[in-house]
């Protein structure tokens, strides 16, 4: 997840390596039609009128596969019993404890939806690291300096000092909730095959298309995270002032904050569009970024 202006917010997916770009690949199978003839005793050949055959074209592109995933028709994310620590976390230990409880809640919420098409596996581990002392967290190998967190095949790693400011405990907590929900969104993509499709297609197009498709992936992760938070807003106390903070954060997450000037996560406007609609709907049906017009993933 990318660092945002003034606070840490967006996360980068790491599918094998950090910052993977993607693209769409296309393949089709030609339809073959055989026209038979009938032969009369006198050698008169009467051609039979061709009939339309069903299309056998298979769309193997990222748009075709990821855009038609069964996740979008799985229903709404349910509210689950989630007993979170009452005190806003600030230390490494407190942030880890909070993140692990939150991830366990997301495991419970997403399991029935993912389970409609695949075996659901919970997150294996959640780890915290400090960019000033990366060797202290070898599990989170080689974290990027412009990221607050990343997902790597069943593991979530986050930079804990970003959320330890004692002057803004509530703001940091809402920011942290948004970040962990985004990273878990990548786990949902992994569990449903979307991330595998992304990996298989990332190299097949131009750099511009690769970046566009990476934005589709990252915006979808935030969208899925927002669907969970919207369904469980009561547990996460996302109402009143906290909800206003959340709305401000999701409207100021985007590539405008990327210190490397890479357009791989989406603009403020695009991020706000996907997260706010999913928070309201609480359904992954609101998160099909792979079928969206390019302007929606700018």
What report would you give on this structure?
With 298 residues, the protein is α/β, with parallel strands linked by helices. The protein has one domain. The protein is 37% helix and 10% strand. It contains seven helices and nine strands. The protein has a five-stranded mixed sheet with strand order 4-3-8-9-7, covered by helices on one side. Strands 1-2 form a two-stranded antiparallel sheet. The longest helix has 25 residues. The two termini are 17 Å apart. About 18% of the residues have low confidence.
In the predicted model, the low-confidence regions spanning at least 5 consecutive residues are 6-58
* Biggest sheet architecture: 5 strands, mixed
Q: What strand order characterises the main sheet? A: 4-3-8-9-7
How far is it from the N-terminal to the C-terminal residue, by CA?
17 Å
Order of helices and strands: EEEEEEHHEEEHHHHH
Strand residue percentage: 5-15%
Task: Please state the CA-atom Rg, rounded to the nearest Å.
Answer: 23 Å
């Amino acid at each position: 997840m990318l660092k945002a202006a003034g606070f840490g917010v967006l996360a980068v997916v790491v599918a094998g390596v950090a910052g993977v770009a993607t693209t769409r690949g296309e393949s089709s199978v030609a339809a073959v039609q055989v026209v038979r003839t009938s032969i009369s005793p006198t050698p008169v050949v009467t051609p039979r009128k061709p009939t339309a055959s069903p299309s056998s074209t298979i769309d193997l592109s990222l748009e075709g596969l990821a855009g038609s995933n069964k996740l979008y028709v799985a229903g709404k994310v349910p509210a689950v019993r989630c007993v979170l620590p009452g005190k806003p976390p600030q230390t490494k230990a407190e942030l880890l404890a909070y993140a692990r409880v939150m991830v366990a809640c997301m495991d419970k919420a997403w399991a029935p939806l993912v389970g409609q098409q695949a075996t659901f596996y919970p997150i294996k581990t959640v780890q915290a690291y400090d960019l000033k002392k990366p060797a202290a967290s070898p599990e989170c190998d080689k974290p990027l300096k412009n990221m607050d967190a990343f997902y790597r095949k069943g593991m979530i790693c986050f930079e804990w000092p970003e959320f330890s400011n004692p002057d803004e405990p509530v703001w940091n907590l809402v920011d942290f909730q948004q970040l962990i929900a985004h990273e878990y969104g990548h786990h949902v993509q992994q569990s449903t095959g979307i991330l595998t499709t992304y990996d298989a297609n990332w190299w097949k197009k131009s750099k511009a298309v690769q970046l566009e498709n990476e934005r589709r992936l990252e915006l979808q992760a935030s969208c899925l995270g927002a669907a969970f938070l919207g369904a469980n807003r009561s547990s996460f106390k996302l109402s009143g002032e906290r909800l206003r903070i959340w709305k401000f954060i999701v409207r100021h997450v985007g590539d405008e904050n990327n210190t490397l000037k890479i357009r791989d996560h989406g603009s403020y406007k695009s991020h706000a569009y996907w997260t706010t609609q999913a928070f309201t709907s609480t359904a992954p049906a609101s998160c099909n970024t792979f079928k969206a017009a390019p302007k929606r993933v700018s």
